[in-house]
């Protein structure tokens, strides 16, 4: 086994360990955090990084052709869809009135704080339904 092959295997191992760590943190956050907004943050951010690390390990293992290319396409797809999905879930939760944690406020249209700490958030502009 050459030095290059050993370095490649250690890189793959490191990426898999990092991926497992982030996926575990995301899972723990999903189970322990109190409301939908915090849980959404815990599932979107760390799991995106963890899954991307796993895909990158696959790319290092298989090389730039075939399965390696599929890994890169998976990373691009992940980074395009997960933030969009998380944003849509947050907007839907806010619109149906899911309460925030105590002391959390939602910014108003003019940039100030609304002072609302409950889920009684109303949308003053009904034409903004094009989420």
Summarize the structure in words.
The chain is mainly α. It has one domain. It has helices spanning 3-32, 36-62, 67-96. Helix 1 runs antiparallel to helix 2 and helix 2 (36-62) packs antiparallel against helix 3 (67-96). The protein starts with a helix and ends in a 35-residue tail after the last helix. Keywords: Membrane, Transmembrane, Transmembrane helix. Residues 106-131 are annotated as: Disordered.
Give a quick precis of the structure.
The chain is mostly helical and 131 residues long. The protein contains 3 helices and no strands. It is 66% helix and 0% strand.
Order of helices and strands: HHH
Q: Shape from CA axes?
A: elongated
Quaternary arrangement of the chains shown?
Answer: single chain
What is the number of independent domains? 1
Question: Biggest sheet, in brief?
Answer: none
Report mean pLDDT, rounded to a whole number. Answer: 84
pLDDT under 50 segments (min length 5)?
Answer: 117-127
User: What is the distance, rounded to the nearest whole angstrom, between the alpha carbons of the first and last residues?
Assistant: 54 Å
* Individual helix count: 3
Helix share bin: 55-70%
Number of strands: 0
Which strand-content bin applies to the residues? under 5%
Radius of gyration: 20 Å
Question: From the helix content, strand content and strand pairing, which structural class follows?
Answer: mainly alpha
Keywords: Membrane, Transmembrane, Transmembrane helix
Transmembrane segments: 12-33, 53-82
Protein name: Multicomponent Na+:H+ antiporter subunit G
GO molecular function: sodium:proton antiporter activity
